[in-house]
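Below is how a single chain appears once it has passed through the pipeline. First comes the sequence as given, then the structure the pipeline wrote out for it. We keep one example in the README because the format questions we get most often are answered faster by looking than by reading.
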Amino acid sequence: MTRTVRAYRSEGLTFQKATNAQQIMHGGEVWQVTEDALISPGGRTLLRLPGHVAYWFAWSGYFG
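Resulting structure:
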C-alpha cells in the first residue's frame, strides 16, 4: 500500500478497527482493505473515493 489518503464509500455502514492494518470489522465480519475498495467476505465492494494529501499552508496559499 502507498502512503496516501484513503477514504471509501461507506453506504451507511459503520466500521471498527481490526488488529490487522489491512482489515476492518463490520457486524462481526472481517473486510479486506485494498487500494481500490473495501471488500466483504461475501464479495461486496465499497469503492475508494478520490483524494490526495495537502498541507494546510499549501491549501491556504492557493485559495487565500
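The first strand starts at residue 7 and ends at 8.

See the next section for the split statistics.
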